Request: fold
Amino acid sequence: MAATFRTRHSPMNEPSFAYFRRSLYALVCTFGLAVTAHAQSGLSAIQLAERAVLEAQQADADHYVPDLMQAAREGLIQAQAQAASRSRSEQRKAEALAARVAADADLARARSEQAKAEASVLQRRQEIEALREQLDRPATEAAE
Reply:
């Protein structure tokens, strides 16, 4: 009769996967969250590109570098279309394209700000030159 009872250490009493339900559920939930977080990372790249394009528009990049802004807008539309695809390869392409669009938009914004700064410097130089001419006139008139 002692042979019919199973002991705690016998091979028949080793826990099966049925006993690991909680651990298995936790593993599946963790994996699901990781996949969801990874899928949303592409969306954040698109959002960063959208923000960069908007900032470039606010910096009047359309006026100073219209070709670069047009390329950034077209790239953003293409990246948004690829991000909506169910294909993982298209989503990866969308993420890379969004990064390029963000870089183009940042460059357009920087060039716009540079052009504004150069125009401001030119205006200040002209004002300085006009003031110098005004200062020179009374001195020459008084000497005569």
Summary: The radius of gyration is 33 Å. The CA atoms of residues 39 and 140 lie 75 Å apart. Residues 30-112 form one domain. The mean pLDDT is 81.
